[in-house]
Amino acid sequence: MSDVYVVGIDMIKFGRFPERTVPQIGAEAALMALDDAGLKIQDMEALYCGNLYQANAMVGQRILQEIGQTGITVVNTANACATGATAFREAWMAVKAGAYDLVLAVGVEQMGKGLLGGGGGGSGIPKEGLLGSARCLRCLPRPGWSTPGNSVRPSSNSPRCR
Amino acid sequence: MAETAKKPLPVVDFLKIPDGGEPYLEGYRCKNCQATFLGERSVCSKCGARGALGAVKLSNNGKLYVYSIVHRSFPGIAVPYVSAVVDLEGGGTVKGNLIGIDPDPAKIRLGMPVQLVYKDALGRKDKEGNSYLSYFFQPSA
User: Fold this and answer.
1) What is the DSSP letter of A88?
2) Given CB atoms, is A122 within the 8 Å cutoff of chain B?
3) Same domain? B69 vs B92
4) Chain A residue closest to B124 (CA)?
């Protein structure tokens, strides 16, 4: 197993950027991180890109289109609030496993306006404030099971959604 | 109006409204290990048995496992309300509103016995004007 080091990081200032695309925003952050490390995109052996709202739009490949299509492997992750962390984790694991020496992880999101989640959506009627709070109805009770007299709870690392 | 004469729809797929019978929550129980789940699933999450899950009527009685008093919610949602998770007798864990008790931590006790009651879904209707039947928890009589 290889030791893993984070050799460069950066982030752009938060904002809405309606005039810019998601890959453009991600590309800016990626370049800043490369500059921080003193490396070029040509040094990278793989790209791990986290983005949720355009999960089917190949954001990682489009970031490379902006900053250099070098033919490296691209992995796009979509994992709810852990989307960016998942991209980083996969990047870390690839280096840890010895598959690559230098990889790039980037997370980028362009949010809509308004509240996240549960005011409505889905079929039927809104469930917020009717079946308790938030949308965990489908995931909170279901990973848990109970047998008569022996209630068993999901462990803290069980999958849950927000 | 024709809509008012129509039978209300279940608010979730695991709430069953039999013709001429009392509504109930449906769970699935593993014939192999007796683990009980809310709603339908294909494989037992506890023992992994396949083809061993069968539908069961869940109990209307349970114990309060945990709760949260919600003071801020989405626009149009009445607050405060009590969001609760209840362990049903004989298995099955379900989340819903706890009603019939003040939203006051001094009055709500973890482990207190509660029962399921079935009522209209706070007057909420879908785009077609359908009414819904929902379930709530209240302190056991």
Assistant:
1) H
2) no
3) yes
4) A125
Instruction: Say yes or no: B62 contacts chain A, CB-CB below 8 A.
Output: no
The residues spanned by each domain of chain A are: 22-107
- Number of Cβ within 10 Å of residue B135's Cβ equals 23
Domains of chain B: total: 2
- A129 vs B contacts (CB less than 8 Å): 70, 73-74, 77-79, 81, 97, 122
Written as six digits, the tokens of A24 are 């453009």
Counting as low any pLDDT under 50, the low residues of chain A are 119, 136-162
Same-domain status, B28 and B49: yes
Locus of tokens 């879908």? B126
Residue B87: the pLDDT is 95
Q: What are phi and psi of A43, to 5 degrees?
A: -85, -15
Q: Treating both helix axes as pointing N-terminal to C-terminal, what angle do A22-37 and A59-67 enclose, rounded to 10 degrees? A: 60
Q: Which of B89, B97, B122 shows the shortest C-beta gap to A132? A: B97
Same-domain status, B68 and B99: yes
Q: Domain A22-107: which CATH class? A: alpha beta
**Model pLDDT for residues B56-67, shown as the tens digit of each residue:** 999 999 999 999
Which residues in A lie closer than 8 A to residue B35 (C-beta atoms)? 145-147, 152
In a domain, B72, yes or no: yes
pLDDT tens profile A51-93: 999 999 999 999 999 999 999 999 999 999 999 999 999 999 9
Q: In the A/B pair of chains, how many CB contacts fall below 8 A?
A: 105
Pairwise CA distance, residues A48 & A60, whole Å: 7
ipTM value for the complex: 0.84
Does the residue B22 lie in any domain? yes
The verdict on B42 and B71 lying in the same domain is no
